[in-house]
Write a structure and sequence with these properties.
Elements (H helix, E strand, L loop, with lengths): L1 E6 L3 E2 L5 E9 L5 E8 L6 E7 L5 E3 L7 E6 L4 E6 L8 E9 L15 E2 L3 E5 L2
Parallel strand pairs: 2-11
Antiparallel strand pairs: 1-3, 3-8, 4-5, 4-9, 5-6, 7-8, 9-10, 9-11
Length: 127
Amino acid sequence: QVQLVDSGGDLVNPGGSLRLSCAASGRTINNYVMAWFRQAPGKERELGAALTWSGLQTYYADSVKGRFSISRDRAKNMVYLQMNSLKPEDTAVYYCAAAAMSSMPTISTNPNDFAYWGQGTQVTVSS
């Protein structure tokens, strides 16, 4: 089992920045895909960014490319999402998620393919 605890959500002005954190514990995540999904009210959960723990594969949704950056700290078992130039449409609950590479040789955008989830952290972009 993998336990994920995500944090860092806040209220921020348009154009501002925020960094989300995801602490992973339990089974080693050396062979996992780590991802940040988001879900806005009335909308489906969508993949924003993901990376393999090796860092060899990354994924960014078109809506966040050039503004968001996903990274990991192997020593601390942490995954981060740096969000810059935030827009009101980025407002959502953000979830950290993980999936074993053995079940996902390439990064999937389907939330049903991710077995482990954080509790979610609210990001609100508003003036």
